[in-house]
Design a protein that fits this description.
This protein has helices spanning 8-20, 25-31, 35-38, 57-69, 72-80, 113-132, 157-165, 184-191, 211-228, 233-237, 245-251, 277-283, 285-304, 311-325, 343-355, 379-383, 387-392, 414-431, 435-444, 449-459, 477-498, 509-523, 533-547, and strands at residues 40-43, 46-49, 107-108, 111-112, 146-150, 175-179, 199-204, 238-242, 258-260, 330-336, 373-376, 399-404, 467-472. It is an alpha/beta fold and 548 residues long. Strand 3 (107-108) and strand 4 (111-112) form a beta hairpin. The longest helix is centred in the C-terminal third of the chain and has 22 residues, at 477-498. It binds 6-O-phosphono-beta-D-fructofuranose.
């Protein structure tokens, strides 16, 4: 297979990137009154505007040409058709099967995955209804009032982000809490106000081996047994979501209460599976299905829309253009909707764990930048913290601005203030303000020449900073499902364009292994001999302070 840099489209994009260094988006807008129509797409419930990027027709043409040359559509079809595109782990990638609302058969190794998914959904629905309607009782016969989800990474971020985003859709039949950190501070704080008789724990771990999750699960067991005494209480207060039935059963969870996971679902793409149980418990099963419906709509769009009108494809192409070709190495996620306050944390894992790699799927060292680092914060809070950097730093940070036409919690006057900032910021980042305008403005304000000369350079905004705008009708289970699936499919496309294996995460293994050894050393009295001198002395210092 031709390496990406040898493709004719790649070479053309490299030279187009050089040409675009001297182009300002203001001029691109001035030259084309149709630019917004050309570079925006209306999906049901979501408007995607990408006109404020440093692109023109020639760039878009070559980006689309690149899609052809890397056979993107064929890879996409392989994913949906259960081929083993997770090459290093020899697995299919079928999180889309979890929201396959058409229920059409998807066959993997002679088995219909759709049937497995439908069985798992039925299992979830029964359980969710039992808990929410108070039929599921704790060891003392009381109904469950609080759910504590114990999991980390993909077994935490997706469900927690969605729970937060949709909290106004909850009827509060139960209260949902999350514990992910092995720092005992978190579980202590979560459990402190709770009554063990009324708590149900979900131990959410695909592997059921993750140290942090197992440590928290063991602490939760001890907390329960302090009050329940009888070990049989565990079966009434713990359920698991895992692909590792043996470990979950050994932990004391009744086999009937282990919800299925499969090796063809990556952790960071798993909120559509039983990993989403806390979402369904919080909102009710019907609303969980609406979330899946929204994602399914995007999967259909991704498979059917032509590449030039395909939102996830364009999102990935723009990321590639900005990072790999223009050299903008980080990207901000900037929601102007309080409910999306965990979105950037969620997308950090989704994008960076998937595509933060530097070896191609052929095993060759990659010489070009792959994906940007992802970071972000609620837009308004960010404006009063780091937007100075977005507007005037030498480092250009493309941003995704995400907002809603209608607020889920309208308060007179608030939404217009919020959204006026939303629109103003992408405008300011794009247009900027040049020295001539700054000087004229200062003069109009009556400043003398000396002050004008002193202040003018500081008040110049170069502009030309790329942004995408995703404007949703309103946050709802369905629109949120759409939004998440857009990013998931964007990440898939990025992986194909960059030629990286998006569905493994070998980079997290080295640290995990070292931590296991160091933990043994922290617990022993032996002098630590191994490690580099920095690490050895840090451990030595830690142990000596602890001993005194
Ligand atoms: O360490 C990274 C990781 O493997 C993630 O990919 C995953 O989402 C997380 O840990 C949790 O894994 P598990 O669900 O197996 O506990």
């Amino acid at each position: 297979m031709t390496v990406r840099t040898e493709l004719s489209s790649w070479k053309k994009l490299t030279s187009l990137a050089q040409n675009m260094q001297n182009i300002h988006m203001n001029d691109l807008f001035a030259a084309d009154s149709e630019r917004f129509d050309k570079f925006s797409i209306k999906l049901p419930n979501i408007l995607f505007d990408y006109s404020k990027n440093i692109i023109d027709d020639a760039v878009v043409k070559q980006l689309l040409n690149l899609c052809e040359q890397v056979e993107l559509e064929s890879w996409r079809d392989k994913m949906f058709n259960a081929e083993r595109i997770n090459l290093t782990e020899n697995r299919a990638v079928l999180h889309t099967a979890l929201r396959n609302r058409s229920k059409k058969a998807i066959v993997l190794d002679g088995e219909n995955v759709t049937d497995q998914v439908e069985d798992a959904l039925a299992h979830m629905e029964k359980f969710v209804n039992q808990v929410r309607q108070g039929q599921w009782k704790g060891y003392s016969g009381k109904r469950i009032t609080d759910i504590v989800n114990i999991g980390v990474g993909g077994s935490n971020l997706g469900p927690q982000m969605v729970t937060e985003a949709l909290k106004h859709y909850s009827d509060q039949s139960v209260n949902v809490h999350y514990v992910s950190n092995v720092d005992g501070a978190q579980i202590t704080e979560v459990l402190a106000p709770l009554n063990p008789e009324k708590v149900l724990f979900i131990v959410s771990s695909k592997t059921f081996t993750t140290t942090e999750t197992m440590t928290n699960a063991n602490t939760a067991t001890q907390w329960l047994l302090k009050s329940a005494i009888d070990k049989n209480a565990i079966a009434k207060h713990f359920v698991a979501v895992s692909a590792n039935i043996k470990n979950a059963t050994d932990f004391g969870i009744h086999p009937d209460n282990i919800f299925s996971m499969w090796d063809w679902v990556g952790g960071r793409f798993s909120l559509w599976s039983a990993i989403g149980l806390p979402i369904a418990l919080d909102l009710g099963f019907d609303k969980f299905i609406e979330l899946l419906d929204g994602a399914f709509e995007i999967d259909e769009h991704f498979q059917q829309a032509p590449l030039n009108a395909n939102v996830p494809v364009l999102m990935a192409l723009l990321s590639l253009w900005n990072c790999t070709f223009l050299g903008f190495k980080s990207q901000a996620i900037l929601p102007y909707d309080q409910t999306l306050h965990m979105l950037s944390a969620y997308l950090q894992q989704a994008e960076m764990e998937s595509n933060g790699k530097s070896v191609s799927w052929e095993g060759e060292k990659i010489t070009y930048p792959t994906v940007p680092s992802i970071w972000g914060e609620l837009g308004i809070n960010g404006q009063h913290a780091f937007y100075q950097y977005l507007h005037q730093s030498n480092n250009i940070v493309p941003g995704d601005f995400i907002g809603s036409v209608e607020s889920v919690t309208p308060v007179a006057g608030h939404h217009e203030t919020l959204m006026s900032n939303f629109f103003a910021q992408t405008q300011a980042l794009m247009t900027g303000v040049n020295e001539e305008q700054v000087r004229a403005d200062l003069k109009a304000k009556g400043r003398n020449q000396e002050v004008i000369d002193k202040l003018a350079p500081h008040k110049v905004h170069e502009g030309n900073r790329p942004t995408n705008t995703l404007l949703l009708s309103q946050i709802s289970p369905k629109t949120l499902g759409q939004l998440i699936a857009l990013y998931e499919q964007k990440i898939f496309v990025q992986g194909i364009l960059l030629q990286v294996c998006s569905f493994d995460q070998w980079g997290v293994e080295l640290g995990k292994g070292l931590a296991a050894n160091i933990e043994t050393e922290l617990l022993s009295d032996d002098v630590v001999q191994s490690h580099d001198s920095s690490t050895a002395n840090l451990i030595k210092f830690y142990k000596s302070v602890k001993a005194n």
